[in-house]
Design a protein that fits this description.
CATH superfamily: P-loop containing nucleotide triphosphate hydrolases
Strand order of the largest sheet: 6-7-8-3-9-10
Helix content: 25-40%
Number of domains: 1
Structural class: alpha/beta
Number of helices: 9
CATH architecture: 3-Layer(aba) Sandwich
CATH class: Alpha Beta
Length: 272
């Protein structure tokens, strides 16, 4: 079996002017798993994701991909290993959905026949076949989010179909910042099933989420941030407890163990 990729973060600190956004962050991510980064607004979730993707350089500390400093990677190298879906992905010019997805695929520079197969595959996965010729600017917010997700998926899509017991996405990472925003429940659930399938094929997935209930169903491990520091880090049952959620997120919540899945069932409560 191929050795799966690892991202290690050591004593990370991010300061902008006199404001500390992240402090003493140390954690590890192993491909083949789905990680969620949780926390209140301003906790440092997006900042950490930007450091992991090399969109932002830390003030102190290091990020290593497979024991190699992220600072030593060229952006061309990173573009073939990781795809990033940011919170905001605005376009100033008209593109058809298909043309937008092709932009993501062109990063890899596959042969034309193979490139067409990749575009077709990600359009199908993101339920965009009926919208492929639509102008991106005329789409709803949720449709635009799916089109942008298809674009980044094309960037890291495997060159060959899955082999039994194989790891098609091995060495690849998908970094997502609030990917559920604007998506209806149908597409959230459909894409989540794909994420689980791809993780089993070697893909490393790190996502920022606000929906704790969804994180409880989807994630293998959770990293909870509070005020720019690590508040909790572990598997979902270790992190998504009533005491941690109450203290870290300052939310009223009830947590029970789902008898079928063994995962925490998180129910936010509105107390009047």
């Amino acid at each position: 079996m191929t050795l799966l990729s690892t991202i290690q973060v050591t004593n990370l600190e991010v300061r902008i002017a006199n404001t500390t956004l992240l402090s003493h962050i140390s954690c590890e991510f192993k491909a083949g798993n789905i990680y969620t980064i949780l926390g209140q607004n301003g906790a440092g979730k997006s900042t950490l994701l930007k450091c992991l993707s090399h969109e932002m350089s830390p003030s102190k500390g290091e990020v290593h991909w497979d024991n190699r400093s992220l600072e030593h990677f060229s952006y061309a190298e990173l573009a073939c290993q990781r795809a990033v879906l940011s919170q905001s992905n605005e376009l100033a010019f008209s593109f058809t959905v298909e043309a937008l997805v092709q932009l993501g695929e062109e990063v890899v520079q596959r042969p034309c026949t193979e490139a067409s197969l990749v575009v077709e595959a990600v359009l199908t996965v993101c339920d965009l076949i009926p919208l492929r010729h639509r102008d991106y600017l005329t789409l709803s917010g949720g449709e635009q989010k799916r089109a942008q997700l298809a674009r980044v998926l094309a960037q890291i899509w495997p060159n060959s179909p899955a082999k039994e017991g194989g790891e098609d996405f091995c060495g690849k990472w998908l970094l997502l910042d609030e990917w559920t925003a604007g998506l209806d429940i149908k597409h959230q659930q459909s894409l989540a099933r794909y994420f689980k399938q791809w993780a089993s094929q070697g893909l490393g997935i790190i996502m920022v989420l606000h929906d704790v209930s969804f994180a409880a169903q989807l994630a293998d491990r959770c990293l909870m941030l509070k005020s720019g520091t690590v508040f909790a880090d572990g598997d979902v049952n270790q992190v998504l407890t009533q005491s941690i959620l109450t203290e870290a997120l300052e939310m009223q919540v009830q947590v029970e163990c789902d008898s079928k899945t063994g995962r925490p069932n998180v129910s936010p409560r509105l107390l009047l």
